[in-house]
């Protein structure tokens, strides 16, 4: 069953189109992440689903009900914002129960819901504290709990971890994943953090300019991006791009930096169009030394920058004037100015049209 449906939704502020005829189906129980750079429309879309913004065109359905013009409180959603927005004068228990009390819910039911949310989020020892006595991670747990006590079908998260430090983000990311496993509710989560998107999502919707560029499972988007934007946005660092040309004919080939790669041999048989093209390869798919010498694409490169990452080392170089990043083992010691052979297997790469940027 579909939990949330967005049908031909557009939103404009004056002459500026924020969302453009957007369609989206979110199955019941799915964890969907809206991912993209600032200004791509991901938070705007979430706010439209929540009822905090009125759409210019289109319709929104939740659990089969048309909620396009319903008030937020009547949509059956729970929302967690980037800001904790807790009442400072109330205890944690007061913050969790306040919305239920104003709705006129019975005292016993309020106590049951608060106890359940506190147990799930492991904040039972904090119930009598006020927000000022809590850490950032504890405050965000309380903010999640305030949505949780509503006992709704759909939870909306608007960059809930962006105000936390790296360690807390990692810890709460795991907690949110566990929360979804326990509840199995539909969750729509907005972030610009690729790690959050890859680790949390059942599916990712990558957005740009108010349009969903690609909607698929994390590994599909990572390994088979539909265009150059998605390829470059996902990954840290993003995919390397090598500009060149496709030679068409019976045996199409990609030519760059003095090397010719026969495309038909590596699954690019459909790329017979002659013209400018771009080869994209992930940093972790580039090899060096003897392994590189055995690859169909190999070239000599000079190390320009070395970034030790702990688990591995990120190395930056240039190939034909184009920047290229690749990973080597943490134990391997490279320095600026070192020369080495690098290469990759074209079967693990992506080929994009040089003009449209679309995957070929």
From TrEMBL:
Single GO molecular function: ATP binding
Give a GO biological-process term. carbohydrate transport
Membrane topology type, per the record?
Peripheral membrane protein
Q: Which UniProt keywords apply?
A: ATP-binding, Nucleotide-binding, Sugar transport, Transport
Q: Where are the transmembrane segments?
A: none
Q: What is its main location?
A: membrane
| Domain ABC transporter: residue ranges | 4-234
Q: Name the Pfam families on file.
A: ABC_tran, TOBE_2
Segments forming a coiled coil: none
Instruction: Report the subcellular localization.
Output: Cell inner membrane
Q: What GO cellular-component annotations does this UniProt entry give?
A: ATP-binding cassette (ABC) transporter complex, substrate-binding subunit-containing
InterPro entries, per database record: AAA+_ATPase (IPR003593), ABC_transporter-like_ATP-bd (IPR003439), ABC_transporter-like_CS (IPR017871), ABC_transpr_MalK-like (IPR015855), ABC_transpr_MalK/UgpC-like (IPR047641), Mo/tungstate-bd_C_term_dom (IPR008995), NA-bd_OB-fold (IPR012340), P-loop_NTPase (IPR027417)
PANTHER family to which the protein is assigned, alphabetical:
ABC TRANSPORTER ATP-BINDING PROTEIN, MALTODEXTRIN IMPORT ATP-BINDING PROTEIN MSMX
The text of the family note is: Belongs to the ABC transporter superfamily.
What's this protein's name?
Answer: ABC transporter ATP-binding protein
């Amino acid at each position: 069953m579909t939990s949330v449906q967005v049908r031909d939704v557009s939103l404009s502020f004056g002459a500026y189109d924020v969302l453009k005829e957007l369609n989206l189906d979110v199955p019941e129980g799915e964890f969907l992440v809206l991912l993209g750079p600032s200004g791509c429309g991901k938070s705007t879309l979430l706010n439209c689903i929540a009822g905090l913004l009125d759409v210019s065109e289109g319709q929104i359905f939740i659990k089969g009900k048309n909620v396009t013009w319903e008030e937020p409180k009547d949509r059956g959603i729970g929302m967690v914002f980037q800001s904790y927005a807790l009442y400072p004068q109330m205890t944690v228990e007061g913050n969790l129960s306040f919305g239920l009390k104003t709705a006129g819910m019975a005292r016993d039911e309020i106590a049951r819901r608060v106890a359940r949310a506190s147990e799930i989020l492991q904040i039972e020892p904090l119930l009598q504290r006020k927000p000022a006595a809590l850490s950032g991670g504890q405050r965000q747990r309380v903010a999640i709990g305030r949505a949780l006590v509503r006992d709704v079908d759909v939870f909306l998260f608007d960059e809930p971890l962006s105000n936390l430090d790296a360690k807390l983000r990692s810890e709460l990311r795991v907690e949110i994943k566990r929360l979804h496993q326990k509840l199995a509710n539909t969750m729509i989560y907005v972030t610009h953090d690729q790690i959050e998107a890859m680790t949390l999502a059942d599916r990712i919707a990558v957005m740009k300019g108010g349009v969903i560029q690609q909607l698929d499972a994390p590994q599909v988007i990572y390994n088979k991006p539909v265009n150059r934007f998605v390829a470059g946005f996902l990954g840290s660092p993003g995919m390397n791009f090598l500009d060149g040309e496709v030679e068409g004919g019976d045996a199409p080939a990609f030519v760059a930096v003095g090397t010719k790669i026969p495309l038909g041999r590596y699954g690019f048989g459909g790329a017979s169009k002659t013209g400018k093209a771009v080869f994209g390869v992930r940093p972790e798919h580039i090899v060096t030394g003897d392994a590189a010498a055995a690859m169909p694409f190999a070239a000599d490169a000079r190390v320009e920058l070395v970034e030790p990452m702990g688990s591995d080392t990120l190395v930056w170089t240039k190939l034909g004037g184009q920047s290229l990043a690749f990973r080597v083992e943490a134990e391997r010691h490279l320095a600026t100015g070192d020369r080495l052979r690098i290469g990759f297997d074209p079967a693990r790469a992506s080929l994009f049209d040089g003009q449209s940027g679309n995957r070929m």
